[in-house]
Each structure stands twice: as structure tokens, then as C-alpha cells.
């Protein structure tokens, strides 16, 4: 295990505290993360075996590497006092903006979207990392204005600061990540204690803008989104078997999940192993889970996410300071939005927005970003426990571990 | 939950405000999880089976496995047609750019136009021939010019060049030229084959080359991505062991056409199946084609097969078909027919087409049957150039069509070979007696028309046997005249029908035309058609009849010598002579046999499945005395000095194998006379009837009878002797 946290304890009696039983990480959170990682690898192994005939293990091998890299980052981050990151507020925002601009300027195009920069060994998807940067920056910004949280000015500024990068990302176009940014900002305001009146207004504004963008503006000849994006967003309302039409992907996904029945088709799965569900290893990996492992498997996966979300909210309440709570709130927003929207689109009740399923979808940027976010949660947990112990309220020994 | 956890905490308690807001987040998550669970329950548990069905339908495709086609065997069991596996370089039209479809559309339009033009010319030619029906020898110079023009137009090719590929179609042009270099075809030829293929069967793969060398196949396989839409498929190819031998009766095979798909005979046959296209291949297709198997393949979303262990349903091989055909006799017949035509050529006659039939008069088994010009059906299973195709169907120039089976489908007057039928009819009707002498003089005049012997010979008044021996036209004109005024005037017609002429023979071939034995009712129908046609089209003549007139005595006199409106085929004549022959063998108790080629259906391994049965169509009771007179007449014709084919049969052992033969020379408008020979040769174990005709071959004795002699020599293992007779005879 890793060495003891840098926080000093008041009673340095080594005999009473054997190092082996120290709990430097939130065990349930870690369990959820590891469970999801294993789930991802097992699912990908079957779902990607026909994608590259010459190298059936390509995707699994890479996903394992991404998970290991991400876990290393998570462990590293859990050893850092997240509170120090608060001071890096402005550099973080600058990195966020610059990386997105760099992608737009230099990036390579994948399926019509320019989302990543290719490096020799990996391609870097700035909008994914941007989610964590956005959480850190907005949390720091809100903390700095913590005495003026009830002012409308604060709400407006927070939203404007989120909308800037969100619009840039949407231009890439990566609509999903852009929406994640906005949701993060909204949840941060919620957790920080912005007035419900402001929050209600924001919801109303969102509803109005969505209506404008999706139906009124195109009718008037103004295309704020690319037509394919509008089609994808509205396709779940009219599913189709025509592979040329937008509803096809979702229809095939529903067939995949439905055909899994109670316990799944296992090795006989065909929808997600034979490319009937496009993007069956990335955005539509939930279809692969549903087909291969059935209702039981999907329920197990959702339980793991429930565990992850519960621990996130729990850490939110445990945090030693407002910054910690807000960071945890941001992570909660990010995970919840992605899980619900991604699963919702796979089962045909939400539009297709191209968000990944955290830790499950194949892809380095997404996996590492999620694990960085989990690393922040671990740091908040460790700091909260250390702070309690330092104050003598709880021992660091495992006999009374509180969850 | 949160409250319980904080119960004993002495740490800064969570502010109530934060608690409410976290509860909102948590509550939202709970609601969302709830919705997702219910939706999953609905999808996976309630609708699961239905989605599973859809998933299975998605991934499984049934591909037909072609069934090996049954073999066609000769009567001794030697294979005439077998199946060989080879490779075919094919183009997938769906992978080709749209410019090829446009080319195909333009080509089809041009084709329709050209065919219409030729059809019109054919109609005009038919009209002309009908108008100058009887006066072929007396055409004026301008009429001859008109006739030649019409013949050229009607015989003109409906062939249309495929429009060129536009210059702008760079991709296709370069693909075809690269492919052409590999498989040794010009890009233009490839383009033509693809366009014609698309026109014939849209969407089906077009075979552009079979039997490409291994070198070419290796190049195509290695550089697959350089040849998009080009595939190499193993295909079963029909192989005809003896090439052109019996080509018209064997037929050939090809992919089922859209029209055939709708026919009841092809029910259950799927598109792309290879079926028989002519001859016995077509007639016995349901036995030969077998049952294709089904390879169930798992496919991915792009429709490409992926490995999976799905049990295929194996194909069921087609049954073998054994024919009554005697390969040796067939081969001799085809050679002899060509020799007969060479004889015609040496006498200055065009002699460019002909047919023969050899029939067992007891049971109707076809021992040999051939038609010239002929073709090699092996060529038809490969892609054809338009030139080759039009040569086969006979639309290029005035050359006769090799695909036509002249033996069964030929529509000819028979000339004097019809006389024994006239004689039999008149004896049975009592219009003549065998000893009565008739037909003195060179000609008979009825009304304004003169009816003369060939070369205006005067045979004098002859009894029946002598008249048959020398083939006196005046005798039979006289008989035809008497028949016209006797009873209902249709004794000859009735007898012809009774013996098997003017009705379908029932042969097991796709085309079995009825033919025409003209009588007064038939003439009335033709008149009516002509009148209606003239009124409909407002033209002076449609050419259905030369002039609207009732059936007259002259018509009946022409019929009596096998001329005029009589239309029959060598096969029908062979059936009629078989009826005379088997009646003669059985003291007048004869049967009208059903001529047939099929003997039995066998398992591919050799077991008998079914013996094909062709019972005679009916019994015919002939007066043996009368029949003997007729048979004596045509036996004398082959054996006695002055007999029309006596010189052809010199040296033949008449006592062992007596020959009963009749020559015929049919007049046809605008052509040299058509040579005919009909004969029956007696043998206690293997009697045989021959029918031979050579279009524009001259006298029957010159070109047709020698063919029968050669075939008879082969059949009875006699030394071969080619003799051309010189007896003029109509």
C-alpha cells in the first residue's frame, strides 16, 4: 500500500497503528471503480473481437492500459491535497480554453468531428479532460464568491464562464461534452446554495433555448446546430430500421438490449459483436452489456454506478471545506449526466448526444478523465478523514470505519 | 441515509441547506435509476423474445448452394451432358457507378427500336410471300428485287451496339482497362458484357469471363482492393461431351430469366438458379435441376459473412436423364446430313439447312434427331458477344438460325412424301381402286389452272403402285380432284390427321407445333382473319391468305401432292410413316406413336427412379389390302427400275432389310426446292423410320435420300455408300 498521508496525527504511537490496515482510499468508491473497469474489459473483449480481424485484442489491450494509467493518476491525485488546486484557478481555466482551441486548430477529424489531437501514442481529447478542469475552475470561482452566492451576478458569471468553453466544444462539434460543462455549472450552483429562483430561471432558459435551437430556428432557416445533430437529437422520437436514417442506431441498440433478455446471450451475442450497433464499443457499450449479460448484467452495472454516485454524494457531504463539496458536486454532475444520458440513449428514451459511459466506454481520454475525477474524490475523502482524525473525532484505525 | 451517517458525528454537521440540495441530487438520481430499470424490464423481460427474433433476422442470411445438375445420357448410358466446376470472373453491378445503369437504359431503348424495325420487315415479307404464293417461278424482275430487299430487311440483325462509355466515367474506364489487361479482354468488351448483363437481369452478378487462367486469378485475389466490384466465383458449368452433337434437342442452360420465374413450371426456383433453356434440358428441367441447398451464413452489418457454425442444408443433386438417343446413329446422321448438303452444293443448290429424324416405328423412341446449322451448347454457357448471340438466334443476315430445331419445329410443305397418305386416304374412302389407271398426259387442266408433272413428263395412265413408284403428279392431282368431289371432300385431311399430321406429336421437347393440314374450315378461318386484319389496318392485304376465296378443288389437288398450304415437320412425317409401318407389321392394326427422347430418370449413382412412359396416342385400323398396295408402291420406288430412289439404294440388301421410301421435292416461294426423303426399313428386331429434309437442296433423290441411306448403313452395320440420285420428282 502507499505510504501514510502527509497529514500528521496527534498520537504518534506506531505500535497501535500497524501500517498494513491503513485505509488511504474510500474502499467502496474504489470497489465501484475497479468493478466498472473489470466490467468494461470483459464486455469489450466480446464486443470488439470482430472489429479488427487481424488483432482481436486491440481494444481490450488498450483499454487495460488506459485503466492502469488512469488508476495511477487516481492514486497520485488522492495523495495530493485538493485544496491546493484552488489556487491554480486561473491557470486551470487558461489550460481549458487553450486545449480546446488547440484541438480546433490542430486536431484531426474523426467521423466529421474534430475532437482530438494525435500524439505518437495516444490521441488527446481536450473536451474530456476539460470536464475535470471545468469542475476545478468553477468550484474555485464559486468558493471565491462564497459570500455573494445569493446574488444574481454570481449565477450569471458562473454560467457565462461555463458557456464560453461549452460553445467552443460544441463547435468542434462535441455536443455531449458541451452539455456536461453546463450541467456541471448548474449543479455547482445548486450545491453552493444559489437561490432556487435562479436555478428555476436557468431551467426555464434551457427549455426555451432547446426549443429554439431544435425547432424554431431551423424552421426559420437558421442552423445553430448542424442538421445531423438536430436529427440525432430528435431521432429517439421516431425510431427507424433504415440504416440510412438517424433512428437506425438507436433501433439496433434496442434490439441488442432486448435480445439479451433476462440473462443475456453471452458468446452468442450478434448485434454488438457484428457491428449491427454502430459504436458498440464506445458510445453504445451499454447495448453490448445488455445483449451479452441481459437484465441481470445491466442491473449489476447500474448498481455499480449507483454505488459510485452514492459515494460521490457522500463524499460531497463529508468534505472538510466548501471547495471539496463543490468539486464532489461537480463530479457527481458529470457522472450522473453521462450515465443517465448514455444509458437513456441506448435504451431509446433519450436523444443521441455522443456522451461516453464513464469507465465503460472504450477510450483513453474518457477513462483517464473519469479516474482523475475519482482521484479528486479520493483526495477529498482522505483529507476529510485526516481532518477529522486530527481533530480527534475519529481514530484512523479500521475498527470504526465510517461510510 | 445521510442523516443516519451523521448521527454520532461530532464533526461540523452538514448544513440543512446542503442536505436539502444533496437530497435533491440524490432524489433525481433515484428517479432516473427507477426509470431506467423499468425501461430495461420492458425491453429485456417483457419484449425480449421479440427483440431476439429481430436480432436473429438481422444476422442470418440464406445463400443458395447450387445443386449439381443431373447428367444427360445416351441410350447406352454414355454421358452427353455433364457438369464441370470452373471459376468465373464476375462484376457486381451494385458496386458499379450509376453511369453503367444509364448506359444500360440507353442500350435497351435502342434494342427495342431495332427489333421493331426487323419485325415490321418480317411482316411485309410474309405478306409478299402469301401474295405470290403459287407463282414463285413467274416473278417479274421488279418483284424479285422487292423480294430480295424484303428478305434482307427481315433477316437484318436486330443487333444494336452498346453506347460508348462517356469519357467522364474515369473510374470505370480505368477499372475496366486494368481488369482487361489481367484477364485478356478489351475494356470495350467488358463494358459491353456488363451493360448487356445488367439489361438482361438487373442486379445479378455479370459473368465476364469463365476459365480465366490461374495467373489472372492470382492477380485478382492479391490486389482485391484495386478491383472493387470484381469477384471470382466458382461456378458449375454445363459441359456437352460431344460438343454440337444433338445440340438442338439437348438444349443448353442459363440463369433463369425474370419471365421464366413467373411460369408455373419453375415454381419454387429462386433467382439466379441455372435452368434448362431449350431441348430436353428445358423439358426435363424439374428432374435435372435438383434442389439447391441452403448455406445459412451469419453476416455483419455490412452484409459480409462472418465465421459461425450454422448447419447448411446440403443440396440435392438433380436426377440423370437417359435418352433414347443412339449416339452412334446421331453422329452418323449429323455427318450424313452435311454430306447430303454438299451433294446439293455440287449440283448448284444452296442447301444451307436441314434436319433428320430416326424413329423406332413400334414405340416412338427417337433414335436420332438433328438439325443444321447447329451450334456448340458449350459456347452458350459462357458469356456471348452480341455477334455470336445474333448468329445463334438467326437475326444476323439471311443465314438460318442454329438454335432452331428444324426436325421438330420446321414448318414445311412435304412434296411427294405426302402421296402415300393421299393414296391411303383415297383407298379407304373408295375414291380410287388400286388397279384403276389414272394420270395420263403431261398436265391436268382444271378451270384456268394447269397442273403438270415435274419437267412435264408424261408417265401415261398408271395404277397406284406404279404411280407411287415413279411419283406421278398427274395421278395424284387426279386423285385430289376426285377426293374434293367425294363425300365431304376431306378424305385426305381426315386421313392425315388420323396418321398424326397437323396435330401436336406430344414429343418431349419445348416446341411441338401443330402444323396445318388445310381444309375448307381452315380456309374460312384464314379468310376471316384476313378480312378483319384488312379492315383494322385499312390496307389492301395483310398476307394471311393470297386472296379471299373458299377452299377450291385446286387447293385440294395441291394438298394431294404435299404442296399448297400444307405445313408440317419432319417429326410429324416420321410419326405418320411410323403409323403406316407398324400397321403394316401388324396386319393393319397400327398405333400413332408418341415420339419421345426421354427413356428413364435415374439416381446420380445409377438407381432407376422412374421409367418415362409415352403410350401411343391412339390405335388406327387400316385395311391391310390397301396398305399393302401403298407399301408395295413405295418399296418398288426404292427397289425397282424407274423407282424414284432406286439408284440411291443400289447395292442395298433389300431381301434382308426391305426399304419403303418416298422422295419429295417441295416448292417454296423465292427458294430452290426443298429436298425430302421419308423411308421405313423393316427389320424384325430393329425396324426404323427415317425422315430427312434439306432446305433448298433440290430434288429429294439428290440431297435427302442419300442421307437416309448413310444412316441406314450405320444402323444395320452395312458398308456406307454415298449415292446421289437424279430422279426429278415432285
Main features:
heterodimer; A: about 400 residues; 3-stranded antiparallel sheet; 12 helices; 3 strands; globular; B: about 725 residues; alpha+beta; Penicillin-binding protein 2a (Domain 2); Beta-lactamase; 7-stranded mixed sheet; 5-stranded antiparallel sheet; 26 helices; 21 strands; about 40% helix; elongated; disordered N terminus
Briefly, what is this?
The complex is a heterodimer of chains A (403) and B (730). Chain A is mainly alpha-helical and 403 residues long. Chain A has twelve helices and three strands.
Explain this structure to me?
The complex is a heterodimer of chains A (403) and B (730). Chain A has 403 residues and is mainly alpha-helical. Chain A has one domain (25-194, 226-396). Chain A contains 12 helices and 3 strands, in the order αααβββααααααααα. Chain A starts with 26 loop residues before the first helix and ends in a 13-residue tail after the last helix. Mean pLDDT of chain A is 83; it is low at 12-21. Chain B has 3 domains: 2-46; 61-78 and 241-323, Penicillin-binding protein 2a (Domain 2), CATH 3.90.1310.10; 327-715, DD-peptidase/beta-lactamase superfamily (Beta-lactamase). In chain B, strands 2, 3, 4, 5, 10, 16 and 17 form a 7-stranded mixed sheet that branches. Chain B has a 5-stranded antiparallel sheet with strand order 12-11-21-20-19, with helices on both faces. In chain B, strand 20 and strand 21 (688-695) form a beta hairpin. Chains A and B meet through helix 6, helix 9, helix 10 and helix 11 of A and helix 2 and helix 3 of B.
